[in-house]
Amino acid sequence: MKKIIKNEKEFVNWFKKHYQEMGYTSIIKENKNSFPDFIILKSNKKLNIELELRTSHFLLHKHQINRVDEVICIENDAKLNTKVKAIKNLVYKPYKAKRINMRFDERQLKLIHSIKGMGTKEAEIVKNILLAYLSEKGYIKEFNKK
Q1: Positive or negative: CA dihedral 31, 35, 7, 43
Q2: All structural domains of the chain with their residue ranges
Q3: What gap in Å lies between CA 73 and CA 51, rounded to an integer?
Q4: Strand 70-75 to strand 45-54: parallel, antiparallel, or no bridges (unpaired)?
Q5: Which pLDDT score, from 0 to 100, does residue 60 have?
Q6: Is the dihedral of CA 7, 119, 62, 26 positive or negative?
Q7: Do residues 79 and 93 touch, judged by C-beta distance below 8 A?
């Protein structure tokens, strides 16, 4: 039976438990929120490893191909000019998000564009502030903080 992976965090956790089964000796370094995701040891050689749910995400994130030795993915849906390992016993099924269509004025757009490049934690804080604001203004009927 294949294991379902819903997001990159689950994939990272899976990899940390199963890297030795894939022929890697040890994890030298995990780079949280930076590229590449891991520096690992295999046959006494250091390798830069990037985990991606889909190989197309590597292109979407605009990673530098010359800074990675292998890409490990669940779905190999785009050709990369590096070694790619697709994990056959995993299935990627992302959470389905509800979409909200909104319009922003020029000042709001300037603020949104100024937050590019922030980390995942900061982006989550901004998202929660935005959802609370939309709820308060009546655009969203329910807002549950998790």
Answers
A1: negative
A2: 3-92, 98-146
A3: 6
A4: parallel
A5: 86
A6: negative
A7: no
Cα(88)–Cα(108) distance, integer angstroms: 44
Q: Which of 140, 135, 128, 141 is nearest to 100 (CA)?
A: 140
Whole-number pLDDT of residue 74: 97
Sign (positive/negative) of CA torsion 27, 9, 146, 115? positive
Residue the block writes with tokens 């000042």: 107
Longest C-alpha distance within the chain, in Å?
59
| Residues lower than pLDDT 70 in the chain | 96-104, 108-124, 133, 135-146
Whether the Cβ atoms of residue 86 and residue 75 lie closer than 8 Å to each other: yes
- Which residues are CB-contacts of 46 (< 8 A; sequence separation ≥ 6)? 28, 39, 40
Tokens of 50: 């990037």
φ, ψ for residue 121 (rounded to 5)? Answer: -65, -45
